[in-house]
């Protein structure tokens, strides 16, 4: 299985806007990546690509944007920012905010820049030092030492697929269960309606691509028809031959 570049460009029209060459990198690596991680049917490819399409905004949101207003922080992290006064110091300060909300969990060290360095990134929006370490172990790509390798076109798809598999999504994808695929990858059901929509798009796109690749069968040429007058001549000749015999 592989992803055709034209198909990906059609579904991700702004896919190269943040990382130049991203679409070509995904298409080029797809066959080897899918084979390595057991993504062997159009259904599994559709589930992988639906989740990735949502998580990274079809290539537009490859690194988590931590530039929040105070009001938005109170909505996203109500326990951490119960009041406007508690949120205001972090408004417009993405690095400080990332360290505030992510340090001390997901393997991130307290009093460090781990929250910022290991914020959501890549095809599956991998988050936290532990998440990055899991990807590094599965792929052999040192995304802990160099987090931006998660968005390198050469490794973007593999890092995302490794997260998909290691989060336990594969059995649910085989059962075409988008609800539980989402729960395993995301930890909740955030964006479920959009993920369902992406799944429908990818199923249709992969079906169309498969039809386009079918060989054209040309019917064998038929023998030219013999006109009625020709048949009469043939019969007469045969009769004369028998009389002479």
Report on the architecture of this protein.
The chain has 245 residues and is mainly α. The protein has helices at residues 5-11, 22-36, 42-55, 70-76, 84-87, 94-102, 114-117, 129-139, 156-166, 170-174, 178-186, 192-213, 228-244. The chain is elongated and about 105 Å long. The model has no long low-confidence stretch (mean pLDDT 90). Among the domains are: 5-60 and 147-213; 70-115, no CATH class. Helix 2 crosses helix 9, helix 3 crosses helix 12 and helix 8 (129-139) packs across helix 9 (156-166). Helix content is 55%, strand content 0%.
Low-confidence stretches: none
Structural class: mainly alpha
Share of helix, binned: 55-70%
Please state the CA-atom Rg, rounded to the nearest Å: 29 Å
**Number of separate strands:** 0
The average pLDDT score comes to 90
Shape: elongated
Report, as a whole number of angstroms, the end-to-end distance: 69 Å
Estimate the strand proportion: under 5%
Largest sheet: none
| Helix/strand order, N-terminal first | HHHHHHHHHHHHH
* DSSP summary: helix tally: 13
Provide a concise account of the structure shown.
This protein is an all-alpha fold and 245 residues long.
Summary keywords:
245 residues, mainly alpha, single chain, 13 helices
Q: Topology, please?
A:
Elements: H1 5-11, H2 22-36, H3 42-55, H4 70-76, H5 84-87, H6 94-102, H7 114-117, H8 129-139, H9 156-166, H10 170-174, H11 178-186, H12 192-213, H13 228-244
């Amino acid at each position: 299985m592989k992803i055709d570049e034209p198909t990906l460009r059609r579904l991700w029209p702004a896919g190269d806007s943040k990382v130049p060459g991203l679409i070509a990198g995904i298409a080029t690596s797809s066959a080897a990546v899918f084979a390595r991680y057991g993504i062997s049917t159009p259904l599994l490819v559709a589930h992988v690509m639906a989740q990735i399409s949502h998580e990274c905004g079809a290539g537009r949101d490859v690194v988590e944007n931590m530039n929040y207003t105070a009001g938005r922080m109170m909505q996203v992290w109500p326990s951490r920012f119960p009041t406007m006064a508690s949120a205001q110091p972090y408004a417009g300060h993405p690095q400080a905010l990332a360290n505030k909300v992510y340090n001390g969990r997901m393997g991130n060290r307290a009093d460090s820049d781990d929250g910022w360095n290991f914020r959501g990134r890549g095809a599956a929006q991998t988050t936290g030092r532990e998440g990055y370490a899991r990807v590094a172990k599965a792929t052999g790509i040192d995304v802990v030492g160099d987090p931006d390798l998660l968005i390198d076109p050469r490794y973007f798809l593999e890092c995302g697929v490794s997260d998909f598999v290691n989060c336990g999504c594969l059995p649910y994808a085989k059962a075409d269960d988008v609800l539980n695929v989402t729960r395993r990858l995301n930890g909740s059901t955030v964006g479920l309606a959009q993920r369902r929509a992406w799944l429908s798009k990818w199923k249709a796109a992969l079906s169309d691509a498969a039809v386009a690749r079918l060989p054209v069968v040309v019917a064998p040429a038929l023998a030219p028809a013999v006109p009625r007058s020709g048949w009469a001549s043939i019969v007469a000749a045969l009769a004369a031959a028998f009389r002479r015999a």
